[in-house]
Amino acid sequence: MGKVDVSIVDFLFEAGALKNTPRSGWLTIGIRQPESVADHSFRVALLGWVLAKLEKGDEGKVIKMCLLHDLEESRLGDLHTVNRKYLVEKGSAYADIFKGLFCGKEFGELVKELKAMKTKEAIIARDADRLEMVFQAKEYADQGKKYVGDWIRTGTESLKTKSAKRIAREVVKRDSRAWLFGIK
């Protein structure tokens, strides 16, 4: 068994930093302890997998895109809509993060494909990201948090796939804790 490349170890430490990076958009509306970028990315990956199955996309590719979609926030922080209005397009941080990794080229190609939004898998992965925001906003709404309606509306309106749109309609109607109260 050979020596593990230190770049892999550093890459995984950097990915772990996302556990301590709060989703900043929620902070702007007074949510004191929002989920982290890592929390968000976990459910995005699950949603991507489900949507890929429903939409008959390449499940593995979608999951990989979902896992990578916010990785650059380990260096940039989570930029909410207002931040992005005043900043140039993100993207260069990915090149630095993937530099020296044996799988860096593959990771970079996946991110490039996701950003181009021209393939079925990229559209599914983007829908997973937006749909996760709808889920989170609904959970905050069910906790009595104000101002989350815009996140639900804009997230739902941005969805492209039929499956994501159907799921979003159910999310809006359902109490986010119904699963818990249904356990006998």
Brief sketch in words of this structure:
This protein is mainly α and 184 residues long. It is 66% helix and 0% strand.
Task: Explain the layout of strands and helices.
Elements: H1 6-16, H2 24-27, H3 37-55, H4 59-68, H5 73-76, H6 81-86, H7 92-98, H8 104-116, H9 120-142, H10 149-157, H11 162-173, H12 178-181
CATH superfamily: Hypothetical protein af1432
Question: How much strand?
Answer: under 5%
Number of strands: 0
Number of helices: 12
In the predicted model, the low-confidence regions spanning at least 5 consecutive residues are none
Q: H/E order of the elements?
A: HHHHHHHHHHHH
Percentage of residues assigned to helices: 55-70%
Please write the CATH class name. Mainly Alpha
What's the architecture in CATH terms? Orthogonal Bundle
- The rough form would be described as globular
Number of domains: 1
CATH topology-level fold name: Hypothetical protein af1432
Largest sheet: none
Cα radius of gyration in angstroms? 17 Å
Alpha-beta content class: mainly alpha
Q: Could you give the distance between the termini? A: 49 Å
Query: Mean pLDDT, nearest integer?
Result: 93
